[in-house]
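User: Thanks for the earlier help. One more: Cytochrome bc1 complex cytochrome c subunit. Can you show the sequence and predicted structure together?

Assistant: Of course, both are below.
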Amino acid sequence: MKKLSARRRHPLAALVVLLFALAVTGGLYAAFAPADKAQADDAAQSLAIKEGKKLYAVGCASCHGTGGQGSSDGPSLVGVGAAAVDFQVGTGRMPAQQPGAQVPKKKNIYSQAEIDQLGAYIASLGAGPSVPTKDQYSPDGADIGKGGELFRTNCAQCHNFTGQGGALTNGKYAPSLEGVDPKHIYEAMQTGPQNMPSFGDGSLSSENKKDIVAYLGAVNSDDTPSPGGLSLGGLGPVSEGLFGWIAGMGGLVAVAIWVAARTTKAKKS
């Protein structure tokens, strides 16, 4: 009887074995599953960089150099980030058709997948702004009033207060922002394309940029009324003053001619 008692298992032995098995299973999963996912992500990123390098060699290297270091025909792309590629190529500004004071927007010749591959390659050359997520430029939860205040303070000097654009010096101009993809507006603030300064998170936070994007979407919406009547393209007091000057002066000239004609006719009679 004593030998049988000695061989009897402890009541908690089965529970200990079960817990040990669960711990081993969890440890193995934690050790191998994330690694597999990370390896898959690394492989996909490496493939994107490889394909992007091929696209770069064909469409970009002639101006920006074989390694993105820049040349007399194009600036260095080291450190500009994937956001700059997504903006410039996504709006058709790059590749440029010809040199000039400013590269205009045109029809895009790359698919979004190809743009992503180009962006991955350029991002591998040096750290820079990444492509924003939809949550960053979506109007949901944005403060439109705050966006209008920020836009008038930082952007209206060139783009005017509703983003209709305006002329700059030496043949340059601030393009209209009406109908521009919200993602591209956000990226322009991140990267500062061409004549535009860049607004990093130190000067305009991601929330501030989101508010500005929402403001532009609101003022350029077809559902937004013009309380002053004819908006004249939203170009502001300069165009309105010019219209008033031309119409007013034209009216005065017409009245003067009419009065002179009447006076001459009266003298003859």
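User: Great, one quick takeaway?

Assistant: The CA atoms of residues 24 and 196 lie 57 Å apart.
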